[in-house]
Each structure stands twice: as C-alpha cells, then as structure tokens.
Amino acid sequence: MSYWTYCRPGLLLGKDKIYIMEIKNVVLPIVTDQFESTVAFYKTITGKEVYLSAAHDGYKLCGIDKFVVLGAVAGPEALEIPRMVQAIFIVDEVKGYWELLKDNCRKVIVPYSTVSTGTRFIIEQQDGKIIEYLQLND
C-alpha cells in the first residue's frame, strides 16, 4: 500500500497528515538580462511595489504583483532552468503536490527542494507545460 492516498482533487492523505491542497496564485516568470530596468518597468505597469526579493541558484528575483522578474548573478547559465519555466504555481502545501505529481509527470526537472523563498519543485507536466510549484516561506 502506498504511503500516500489521493482521495479527490485537493485532498491527499498521508500516514500522519491530511494535505488539503490549493493553488493560491499563478505567477508569470520574466527572465531578463536587464534586471533593474525590468523591475522598474513591471512596477510602473502594475502600480505595485516589490513584495518579494531573494537570490538563489545563481540568480536574483523580485516579485511584483503577478510577475516574478529573474536576472543572473553568477552568469547567464544560471538562468537556463528559469527560462524553461512557463508559470509558477504558488501553493499552500507543496509536499502534497510533490507526492501527487512526482510519478505523474513527463519529467522532473528540479526535485522537491528548499530555496531562499520557500520549498519547490519544477516538472514538465503531462500537457508539456513546465511549471514550478512553490510554497513560500511564512
């Protein structure tokens, strides 16, 4: 018997926990070689300020409204995976989504891991879309 039981959409039962899963937000990644001017542009068009600023895996990022702007710090190769990502699903329970999707996708690109902004994984879904699932730090 599997450790995890998928009951219905949004509900996953584990041995010691029930995961009630929800995609809280969908964010569009904007990968750029002109980080500061791109951040300024998205602040202007949205009328919003940066709500998240972080760096990891050789790139920096700023969240502005429904966008996350990403720019290389350690060289352009650091943006190879971010350039592949078509959307970021901000979720409330990334572990539940990982257990549900890790064996039900075309390819795991980045396995379940912790980064400066929270916990995430990146997969190529059955529909061919490359999606990052991210649970932000509290």
Short description:
The chain has 138 residues and is an alpha+beta fold.
Descriptive account of the structure:
This protein has 138 residues and is of the alpha+beta class. The protein has one domain: 2,3-Dihydroxybiphenyl 1,2-Dioxygenase, domain 1 (Roll), CATH 3.10.180. It contains three helices and eleven strands. It has an eight-stranded mixed β-sheet. Strands 1-2-3 form a three-stranded antiparallel β-sheet, covered by helices on one side. The protein is globular and about 45 Å long.
Strand content: over 45%
Mean pLDDT: 89
Shape: globular
With helices defined by DSSP (H or I, 4 residues minimum), what is the helix count?
A: 3
CATH architecture: Roll
- Sequence stretches where pLDDT stays below 50 over 5 or more residues: none
Side by side, the strands of the main sheet go 5-6-7-4-8-11-10-9
Task: Please give the structural blueprint.
Blueprint: E1 5-8, E2 11-13, E3 18-20, E4 23-32, H1 35-46, E5 50-56, E6 59-64, E7 67-72, H2 80-84, E8 87-91, H3 94-101, E9 107-115, E10 118-124, E11 130-136
Parallel strand pairs: 4-7, 8-11
Antiparallel strand pairs: 1-2, 2-3, 4-8, 5-6, 6-7, 9-10, 10-11
